[in-house]
Design brief:
CATH topology of the largest domain: Ribosomal Protein S8, Chain: A, domain 1
Shape: globular
CATH class of the largest domain: Alpha Beta
Number of domains: 2
Mean pLDDT: 96
Oligomer: single chain
Structural class: alpha+beta
Number of strands: 12
Low-confidence stretches: none
CATH superfamily of the largest domain: Malate/L-lactate/L-sulpholactate dehydrogenase, NADPH binding domain
CATH architecture of the largest domain: 2-Layer Sandwich
Order of helices and strands: EHHHEEHEHEEEHEEHEHHEHHHEH
Radius of gyration: 20 Å
Helix content: 40-55%
């Protein structure tokens, strides 16, 4: 089967059909499809259609509730809570985000706590939704133990992604989203599938020795970015987005799951800030002042984060999304056989 170029609507329909056939409720099928198609649209292959098979595998293993109904609770504080009920996190976030934005505008800052969710997706789609409300935002979550702490010899921390966004008038927001490991685990898997060696400094094997073999890395542990600095940020995420919100740490998530082949269950923390409320009473428009900083950076030849992703988005909107023959074969197999294909 040859590769193909699909419109965003065509890929959306195909992925959603697969998700529904896999047993997800319409609520979850639509939410997962949105983030997977966004990954392909923005040329983030590690979070695109490659993730569909893992979602179905997690459903088949009974490690996620495919028809869970997120339960939102909100009091007079700045904290919004959504109990995901063992379902995927995406629908839970979509349930809580409008209330989070409302509270951030009311109080200046607010937090969304998602508990008991299964998570696999990139965080930048969530961040972008909040920047569309004129808010700055942070999102973070643990994972399962697959990263050795700096100076350690075995997996303990998760890949523990962290994302931040700043709104910009009439421009794409300033957004970054990265794992606190040297690379996302999905990147290691893509190297393995391509039969390529990893760059030096990405991983250690099960005996704690440096390795460039993706198989040995997946059997051993990844390393944090920036040595002790990335390790400290990853630990912060364990504390804020697991311990503080009463959910699973990465070692606990791995123990509960029993494997790294499925999507992990834990919690997620999202923080939203209203720049105009924080700068109230001070001279200057915070969004305009931010533009001065961005212009100074680009004036030196620096590239703002996510600029390549936004360029890929514009190309996909104009020309469609190109999938390889292998990716099309995977999607057709999953559409034809559903859970029997995994």
């Amino acid at each position: 089967m040859s590769g193909a170029i699909l419109t965003i609507d065509e890929l959306t329909g195909l992925v959603e059909e697969i998700m529904l056939k896999g047993g997800l409720s319409p609520l979850h099928a639509a939410a997962l499809t949105r983030v997977i198609v966004a990954g392909e649209r923005d040329a983030c292959k590690s979070h695109g259609v490659y993730r569909v098979e893992g979602c179905l595998r997690t459903i088949k293993a009974g490690k996620v509730v495919p028809d869970a109904v997120p339960e939102l609770s909100s009091d007079d504080s700045a904290i919004v809570r959504v109990a995901a009920g063992g379902g995927f996190s995406n629908a839970a976030f979509e349930a809580g985000a409008p209330v989070l934005a409302e509270k951030a505008r009311k109080f200046g800052l607010a937090a969304l706590v998602i508990n008991d969710c299964t998570h696999f997706a990139a965080l930048w789609p969530e961040i972008e939704l909040l920047t569309e409300h004129g808010l700055a935002a942070m999102a973070m979550c643990p994972s399962y133990a697959s990263v050795a702490p700096s100076g350690g010899s075995a997996a303990l921390l998760g890949t523990n992604p962290f994302a931040f966004g700043w709104p910009r008038r009439d421009k794409n927001p300033y957004v970054f989203d990265f794992a606190t490991s040297v690379a996302a685990r999905g990147e290691i898997e893509l190297y393995r599938r391509a039969g390529k060696q990893l760059p030096d400094g990405w991983a250690i094997d099960r005996d704690g020795h440096p390795t460039t073999d993706p198989e040995a890395a997946l059997d051993g542990a990844m390393l944090p970015f920036g040595a002790h600095k990335g390790s400290a940020i990853s630990t912060m995420i364990e504390l804020l987005a697991a311990v503080m919100i009463g959910d699973l740490t990465s070692p606990e998530a791995l123990e509960a799951l029993g494997t790294t082949a499925l999507a992990p269950a834990h919690g997620e923390l999202i923080l939203a800030f209203d720049p105009t409320r924080f700068s109230q009473g001070r001279a200057g428009d915070p969004l305009a002042r931010a533009e001065m900083l961005f212009e100074a950076m680009t004036g030196q030849g620096a590239r703002l984060p996510s600029q390549r992703r936004f360029a890929a988005r514009q190309k996909a909107l104009a020309e469609g999304i190109r999938l390889t023959s292998e990716e099309m074969a995977l999607l057709e197999r999953l559409r034809g056989k559903g859970l029997d294909a995994v």
